Every structure is written in C-alpha cells, then in structure tokens.
Amino acid sequence: MTDTDNETGPPTLGHFTTYRATQRLWSLDPEERRKRALAWTEGLGATTEATQLYIVQGIESDADVLVWSSAVVESEEAPLRFFTARAAAENAHRDLFEPRHILWGMTRPSQYSRAAKSAQEIDPFAAERAPYLVMYPFTKTADWYLLGPETRQGMMNEHIRIGKQFREITQLLLYSFGLQDQEFVVVYETHDLQLFSRLVYDLRDTEARRYTKADTPLHTGVRVSPQEWAKTLG
Amino acid sequence: MTDTDNETGPPTLGHFTTYRATQRLWSLDPEERRKRALAWTEGLGATTEATQLYIVQGIESDADVLVWSSAVVESEEAPLRFFTARAAAENAHRDLFEPRHILWGMTRPSQYSRAAKSAQEIDPFAAERAPYLVMYPFTKTADWYLLGPETRQGMMNEHIRIGKQFREITQLLLYSFGLQDQEFVVVYETHDLQLFSRLVYDLRDTEARRYTKADTPLHTGVRVSPQEWAKTLG
Amino acid sequence: MTDTDNETGPPTLGHFTTYRATQRLWSLDPEERRKRALAWTEGLGATTEATQLYIVQGIESDADVLVWSSAVVESEEAPLRFFTARAAAENAHRDLFEPRHILWGMTRPSQYSRAAKSAQEIDPFAAERAPYLVMYPFTKTADWYLLGPETRQGMMNEHIRIGKQFREITQLLLYSFGLQDQEFVVVYETHDLQLFSRLVYDLRDTEARRYTKADTPLHTGVRVSPQEWAKTLG
Amino acid sequence: MTDTDNETGPPTLGHFTTYRATQRLWSLDPEERRKRALAWTEGLGATTEATQLYIVQGIESDADVLVWSSAVVESEEAPLRFFTARAAAENAHRDLFEPRHILWGMTRPSQYSRAAKSAQEIDPFAAERAPYLVMYPFTKTADWYLLGPETRQGMMNEHIRIGKQFREITQLLLYSFGLQDQEFVVVYETHDLQLFSRLVYDLRDTEARRYTKADTPLHTGVRVSPQEWAKTLG
Amino acid sequence: MTDTDNETGPPTLGHFTTYRATQRLWSLDPEERRKRALAWTEGLGATTEATQLYIVQGIESDADVLVWSSAVVESEEAPLRFFTARAAAENAHRDLFEPRHILWGMTRPSQYSRAAKSAQEIDPFAAERAPYLVMYPFTKTADWYLLGPETRQGMMNEHIRIGKQFREITQLLLYSFGLQDQEFVVVYETHDLQLFSRLVYDLRDTEARRYTKADTPLHTGVRVSPQEWAKTLG
Questions:
Q1: Does the beta-carbon distance from B175 to C201 stay under 8 Å?
Q2: φ, ψ for residue D24 (rounded to 5)?
Q3: Is E200 helix (H, G, I), strand (E, B) or coil?
Q4: Which residues contact E217 (CB under 8 A, 6 or more apart)?
Q5: What is residue D5's predicted lDDT score, i.e. its pLDDT?
Q6: Which chain B residue lies closest to A143 (C-alpha atoms)?
Q7: What is the DSSP letter of D10?
Q8: How many helices (H) and strands (E) does chain D have?
Q9: CA–CA separation, A182 vs A184, rounded Å?
Q10: ipTM given for this complex
Q11: What does R_g of chain B's alpha carbons equal in angstroms?
C-alpha cells in the first residue's frame, strides 16, 4: 500500500470532509462525549487505507475537524465501495457530526512535470505526516485551455521553479473534472505555516495567476491524533 | 414504456431531487429507521414510470440521496399530475426527508445531432443502469445565441466528435428553458468515473467552452437499491 | 372588480409569496393538519380581491406553495392596508407556514405596446385560470436605459412579435422599481409547459436578451384548489 | 432635538434594523405575545432620541418589522453609548426577536448640493412622518471616484434636477464609509409608493446610473404605531 | 511580551472571531447567564498573551461580540499550540457561544514602508486601547501583482501620505496568504468613528483603489470590559 508512484501504479482517490459537531454533542456528559468522538473517528478510519485528522476549529468558522481519507482505485468499483462504506460509518454517529465541506478527486500523472516522482510529492499513505495541511479547490479560466501547449508549459515552468525553492513543502494534485464543481483539489503539507504563506505570496506575481478562476475556500488544518482532539472536547 | 425514441414519441419529463435526512431520522431506532426509509422510496417510486436511487452522501455536502424520476408527457396535464402525486408521496414522510436540490426538464430532439437516435443516448426507462450518474444544470452565454447557425454547428461538431470517443458513456439532455433557472439539465451514466473525468477534461479546450455561462453545481451519484441504502442507515 | 383595463382604471398591486411548511405541521395529526392548512388559505384569501394557490413542492427546492394575491390600488393608502391585513392573516398561522420568497409590484400601461389592451394580457381578477403559472424577477442592464428610444422600441418589437406567435400564453407585467430589488415581475399563465418552454427558447436569440441583467430565480407553479392541496398533506 | 441643520449642528447617527420574530413568540398566548412585543418596542425606543416602527412582513421575506433609530452624535463617545444601550434593550427580549439586517451611518453636508438645507431633506427627529419608508445601501464604482469633480457635479445635477420634480418625496443620506460594507445608506419617505416607483424609474436613464456598483437589498416599510403592529400579532 | 518591533522580533499571530449567543443563553436565568459569559471570556483570555473584547451587536447582524487574540510566533509549533488551546477554551462553553466569522494572519515587515516602526502602528500587546476597532479582509486584483515595483511603490506612497494626515488612527497589517481566503487582514483602532469614516472616504479616489479586489465584510467593534458586556446581557 506504500507504492504511490502514480506513473505506474493505480490512481488514488483523495477525499476531504470538514465536520461540525451538533449541539447534541455538547449536551452529552464529557466522558460520553469523548467516547463517542473516538468511536466516530475509529469508524471512519476503518473504511479505507489511510485516514488523517485535523483541527479546523478556530481556523475556519463553520467546522470543527477535517478528515482526510485516501483509497487506492484498483478497479472501476472502488469509488462505489468507498462511498457506500463511508456513508455507513458516518451514519452510525449522524446525531453528533454533520459534514460541512467535501472535496475529492483522483490522482493522475502531471502533464507539466514528467520527471521521475518528485521528492516534493505527497505520499498519502506514508506514516509520517507534517503538522499542517492546506487544501483548496482550484479552477482555471476558460482562456487557459485555449492557450497553446508551449505557452502553458512556460507558465507552469515558472510556477514549478518557485515551488522548488521551498523544498520542505510537499504537494498533492487531485483531478476533480466531472466529479465535483472544481477542476482540481490542491493539497500541501508543511512544518511551517509562515514559510508556506511566503510561498503563496511569491506565486502571486507569476503569469499563470491571471488564469486562476477560483482557488477558494481554502482550508488550513492542524494535525492531531484522535486522542489529542478528544482532550479539547471538555 | 420502453420506446424512448424522442424524435417520434412523446417527450419525457426528467426529474432529480437530492434529499437530506432530518435529525429525527437519526433519533429513531435502527429498525424503524430502515423501515421508514424503505417506505419512503417505495412511495416515491409508485408515482411515476421509472425511479432510480443514488447515494450522494460523502460526495456532496448537503444531501444523502438523489432520486431520479422519469415520466412520459402524454398530454398537457402530465406535469400537473406528476407534481401533485409527488407532493403527496413526499409529504407522507416529510418529518424524515427534506428536499435540497431539484433539477428537471423535458426531452426534445437535438437540433445539432439529427441522426437516428444514438447508441450513446440514455433510455431513462431501461431496466439496466450504470453504477454512476453525473448531472448538472447548464446555461450558455447570451453571446452564444447570437452566433450564426453554422458557427454553432461547427463548435457542436467538435464537441460531439470528442464525446463519441468515449463510447461507454451515455448522455441525456433535458430542456429547462422557462421551467427552472438553467437552460438544460445534462445527465451522464458511466461504469468508470476515471474515464468520465477524462472526457470532461478533454472537452475543456474546445471552442464551445467559451460560451458556457454556468455548469454547476454538479451532482455525482453512486447507484444503490433501496435495500443497499437502508443497510447504510445503521 | 373585473375591469382591469390598466390604461384607464386604477393600477393593480400584484403579490406573490412562496411558503414552506414548518416541521410542526408534519407533527400534527393528518386531520388537524388539513384543517389548519385550509384555515390558513382561507385567511389569506379574505384579505384581498383575488387569491390563487399553486403547488411549487417538487418544482423548486425550498417552498411548498405559492400564493398569488391581487389588490386594486384605489388610493395611496392601499399598499398600507394590504400589507397590514396580510400580516394579521399570516400571523394567525405563523407556527405552520413560513414565507420564503416574496415578489410584488404594480401595473402600469406599457410604453412599448400602446395598442388597446391585448388579448394576451392576464386579467388577475378573472375567475377562469390556466393550470400553470411561471413568474420571475426581471432587471435590465444599465446600458439598456442609455440606448435611444427608437433602438429600444425596435428590440421590443422583435420580442413582442415572437410572443404573439404563442397566442395561448398570457402575460402580466408588474413594475417594482424602488419597491423591491428587481425592476419588474414578469408573470405568465399557460395550459402547456412544453409550449411555454419553446417560447422562452425562441426568445433567446433576440437582441434584447443582451440587455437582461437578471431574470432569476424563476418560479413555476401548478394550480390547485385549497382542497386539492390539502389532500396532498397526508 | 429638532434642529437638524447638518451644516452647522452635530451629525446624526441613523440606524436601521429589520427583526424577525422567533417561533417562541408564536407559541406564547396572544395576550402575552402582544404585551411582550410592546415591551420590546418600548425598550428600544427608550435608548435614543427618535425611534420609528415599520411593518416589512409580506414586503420582504425574512423579517417582520423595521426599527429606525436616530441619535445625535454630540461627542466621540456617542456611538459607543448608542450601541451599548441598544444591546441591553435587545437582550431583554432576545428569546423573541432576532436582528436580520442592520444598516447605519452618519450624516454629513453633501458636497454636491451646498445650498441651504432643502425642503426635501428628511428631519429624522420630526414628529410627523410619512406612511412609507424606502431605504437601501449604496456603493459607487471605483471609476466614479477617479472622474474629475466637474464631471461628477454635472452628473449629480441631472440627478438632483429629477429628484426636485417629486417635491412630495423627502430624502436622507447617511455616510457609511469605513463603518459598514456600503458607502451610503439612502433613505426616502413618501405618501405614495406609486409616485416613488416612478421617480426611481425616471432616474434609470441618467448617466450617473452607470457608476452604481450596488444599491440592493432595498427595504420598503409601512409605518405603524406599536399598538397597530401588536394587533396584527393575533 | 511588549516588544513588537516586527522588523527584528518574532512575528505575531493576530486572530479575530465574532461570536453569536445561542438561544440557550437567553433561556438561562440572568445571573447564571452573566456568570457563564464571564467564565467564557476568562477561558478565552487564558489561552494567549493578549485578548480584547468588542460589542458588535447592533453593528452587524449575525454576531454579538468580537474577540481579538494575539500570540507571539516563537516557533513553528506556535499556531498548532494556539489553535489547540483555543478549541479547548471554546468547547467548554459551546452550548452558549457559536463562532460566526474568523479572520487571522501573521505580521511581517511591510515592503512599502521600511522606515523605523511608525507611531501609527498598532501594538497588539499594549495595555491601553482605543474604544473603536475596524477590521476587514483585503485582497488585491491579479493585475496589481503584475505591475512594476516602482508603480506599486508610487501608488502606496499616495496611500500612506493620506493615512499620515490622520495621526490619531493606528493600523495593523496581517498577512493571510495561504492561510485563509483573503490576502491580508487590515486592522484599525480609533477614538473617533467619524474621523475614521473620513479617512476611508479620502482614500476612495486614490489610484490603488482600482486594484482592490475585495475589502468586505468589514467589522466594526465597540470596546468593552467583560464586566461591561455582562451588564448588557439582562
């Protein structure tokens, strides 16, 4: 399950949901509250190969946690199995946790960077993870797709060159064409939010930026274990 | 009821509703919950010629299932009868299921593809169905309608040519002019979401894309029987 | 009350509200539910000269019925009296029915079609009504108002000529300038939604369409008597 | 408190809130309901120099009444005192009335009409009031502010000339730059909504209209005494 | 903790949340209500170096108070620690206070004003504070970032020159690139809202204004001690 060389292996389905606790959670006594919260994260984790938990409370206004799940797409039936199992896992605790934002897509080899898999590419199945995750839906303008391939490659080269100056920051690109409203889900992991903010700032004056139709709402998450999260629940 | 040759037969009213379960459903005991859910799908199914059920939970954030209903429009009174019967069927379980998004329209022979009915055209009354459904409202820009007919035909030919390269993917076009806010409802069925995503990607650099005013929110559904769905309810 | 010749008589205030039933309605036993629903429609009907009821459930997602009320504006106090009486009628059943969308305006002789009152003009006080109603807010672009009067008249002539080819479809135009956000409320009645959809399609490639700033959200309603509606409530 | 000559006296803080009744109000018995409603309006009225009440129920969809309060800004602390006292007055009845839309600003001498105070300028502290109020947030485009002063004055002259043809209609302009999202709150009082609608229509083909970035949502209110309003509550 | 010289010291994380009281707060008896409100503000204050409280009730429609927290970013783990502690503090009173809007970012030396730290720069850790706070998210257009550095410096000079004419008004700039949807959070403190409104008005006809993509929703707050606020709760 750790071979994620997208050029040769099967694609990965990457899935992100932010959840908000219902008022019913806050009416439970604290011990029951923590127990149910842990049972919920365990249930979600049992449905797929890799699951990560992030606090988004205090970072964005209408959710408490972000759950990142990754599944290997070994056959055409994989998405059907993933979503059916996920529904059952969520419904076991639907009185307590409501989904708020869902973003998902599948990996594919990039057409702009055909070199061997980069050291800056996120492996969604790795055990070691960075403390911060940033993720957003991304859609290019109609004009972008009518530019010639060399023009597009040139602009992407500028973009890639800047990204390479921030070696600590890793990236994952999911394709959502025809699956959700956005074209891509762009995912970053970092140990340093200040550094990541600098990277985004430095990308502002690239030519390719003109061809961004939408790159919001952005989600930033702070990685925690289920136990660390349960401690914040009172 | 299986003759869906739109060129000669009566038009079809195609109707899609996403529903979200209320918190009251989750407060019922699991057996009662499944029983009420099955009674609800049965009631909806009894009001029209063809009804399909899809899980959208985990795929989009504010709904649980998508119901696709199709009715033959044999007379001017058909929509009146359809919507009156539908209201009664929904109201028998309004404490449990709330409508969230509704998209509907009626079929009409395409002006751009007048050949005999294509093998890629969806028959809404067929018994065999694909596991995935993708559907979205679609509106063209005002400028599109002021182009000459030959220019429009040329752009559509490019579009149709790409679609034909994906023979496994079938399509249905509903006209919603004057019925809802969008101009069309575009519906696809596929056995392979990865392949479908590639088709949408390949259509991005066609000229006609410039004349798309809106093609969101897109809905993707995973087909299940009512019994399979009931199993996910806990 | 049947003289609606707008050129000579007083203007009409036309008023549309979509309502959604609260969860409390669904918690009542069915007989009480139907009784309260009928009392509510009766109360609304008693406040003005003409009231019509339409099902919008299943047609749009966040309402159950549409109520169309018409009042003769015989003096400056007429709107004050209309809205005060309406508030009292609504408040007698506010635990059961919540307003969702409100559109209103007043009639005025058209500046583009000064001929004697057309056979295609809706009489809001007539007893006989068509089974389908379509209605939407309408606002033109700032540029439209800076065109010369002859250019505007020419574009409107094209528009009017197409409308006249659909003799069965009748129309009412309400002015909302300075009363609500839209400039007009456009209302149609028809016996045939398929035909109406064709009319809207045919109007898409007129020049005047370029000067449409907004014509959504569109509301389509299926006419029912209060008793027919009560039967759908379970 | 009746000297409102803005050129020489202190500015006025003008404040508008629309409120919606909670479901709890409708669960009270009618006598208690009317008593609490009157106590609420009395409490709001006690916090400032002038308070007016308008029904907006049936006119816009998500509120029941509009409260217009005016306070003299005699010192820098005046807004602090106004908002602190207002919070206490609202909170005494927060189980029954929820704020929905808030618009506010402060008066300032107009730069376009420096003549002595016009007869068409609203005195917010006058005892006599018109039966209808219309009010909306107003923001100009960035381009407007880059036009030369003479061009702007010319456009405003055209605007003012049309307004003067409607002598019965009075106006108040509040500045909201840096206080809320809009630049201005524009307020009108009239005895005749039909006439007011004509004024807005006549202003549509002025040049200045091109430089309007936003002038919605518009609020129209029907003036009532607290006692008249209480009667509509059942 | 009072050394906030951003050029040499560590950056500051600035964090703003507006909160709305739930209906449950209003159902408590007044003494319990005030006690719980004070415990909540105390809990939030205990998680970071500096916390300020502002009433926004009556100023904006969907919140009651605004809490401004500032934390020194001494290491990469600081945001992780800040958000985890904040979650725990909020969750102890989640039945009573719901977050509505969250804006945050980190300080950085400005590239346009490299002089020694200005007297008009806000020190978030100072004990003395102004009675009014104004704050909004700010994003520039894509075109801004493609202008040459000298053009940008020229436009900023005009902007800075006007700001310096209002010596009483202080400012803080937080960078949010890659952390939230906006690029910056702009914060002002003032003793005089009328004067601040004049400053914003005077900035409207600067060239740089053309390059503002978004500067709303703006939040204005009136500073209170927790005890003063508790008094308004009934």
A1: yes
A2: -60, -35
A3: helix
A4: D181, E60, E101, E136, E137
A5: 43
A6: B210
A7: -
A8: 6, 9
A9: 6
A10: 0.93
A11: 19
The answer to whether the CB atoms of E192 and D94 lie below 8 A apart is no
Question: Are residues A168 and A121 in contact, defined by beta-carbon separation less than 8 angstroms?
Answer: no
Single-letter amino acid, residue B127? A
Under an 8 A CB cutoff, do D181 and E210 touch? no
Task: State how far the alpha carbon of C12 is from the alpha carbons of B175, C169, C226, D227, in Å.
Answer: 34, 20, 24, 29
**A22 touches A98 (CB < 8 A):** yes
- Identify the three-state secondary structure at position C99: strand
| CB–CB contact D58 C106 (8 Å) | no
Average pLDDT, chain A: 93
Per-run averaged pLDDT (10 residues), chain A, 234 residues = 51 98 97 98 96 98 97 97 98 98 91 66 95 98 94 94 95 98 98 98 93 97 98 96
CA atoms lying within 13 Å on the CB side of residue E146: 9
The Cα–Cα gap between C90 and C48 comes to 13
Tens-place pLDDT, residues A11-37: 999 999 999 999 999 999 999 999 999
Q: What is the mean pLDDT of residues B43-70?
A: 97
Residues of E with CB under 8 A from a CB of A: 11, 15, 17, 22, 73, 76-77, 79-80, 83-84, 86-88, 90-92, 94-95, 99-102, 104, 106, 142, 145-146, 175-181, 183
User: What residues contact residue A114 under an 8 Å CB cut-off, 6+ apart?
Assistant: none
Report the pLDDT value the prediction gives residue B2, as an integer from 0 to 100: 35
Residues of A in contact with B131 (CB under 8 A): 76-77, 80
Contact E136, E221 (CB under 8 A): no
Q: Are D56 and C83 in contact (CB under 8 A)?
A: no
Contact at CB, A77 and B131, closer than 8 angstroms: yes
Q: How far apart are CA B197 and CA D20, in angstroms?
A: 46
Distance, in angstroms, between C55 CA and closest chain B CA? Answer: 8
d(C-alpha B191, C-alpha B196), whole Å = 9
* CB-CB neighbors (< 8 A) of E92 in chain A: 234
* Alpha helix stretches (DSSP H) within chain C: 23-27, 30-45, 78-91, 149-164, 193-202, 226-231
Nearest CA in chain E to A234: E92
> Which position has the higher pLDDT, C119 or D212?
D212
SS3 E105: strand
CA E30 to chain centre: 30
Q: What is the pLDDT of residue D159?
A: 92
**Rounded (to 5) percent helix, strand, coil in chain A:** 30, 30, 40
* A20, A27, A83: best to mutate for the B interface, most B CBs within 10 A: A83
Which chain E residues are within 8 Å of A224, Cβ to Cβ? 84
Interface residue of A155, A197, A215 to substitute, partner E, most E CBs within 10 Å: A197
One-letter amino acid at B49 equals: E
| Helix, strand, or coil (residue D182) | coil
CA distance D64 to A138: 41
* Residue numbers in A near B228 (CB within 8 A): 84
Contact: E99, A58; criterion CB under 8 Å: yes
Q: Are C43 and C89 in contact (CB under 8 A)?
A: yes
Q: At E35, phi and psi to the nearest 5?
A: -65, -45
Q: Are B214 and B182 contacting, i.e. CB atoms less than 8 angstroms apart? A: yes
pLDDT at position D110 is 64
Q: Is residue A159 within 8 Å of residue A203, measured between CB atoms? A: yes
User: Of E46, E43, E3, nearest to E19 (Cα)?
Assistant: E43
Q: Is residue D136 within 8 Å of D213, Cβ to Cβ?
A: no
According to DSSP, the residues that pair with E138 across neighbouring strands are: E184
Residue of D58, D197, D200 with shortest CB distance to C83:
D58
- Residue A114: how many CB atoms within 10 A of its CB? 8
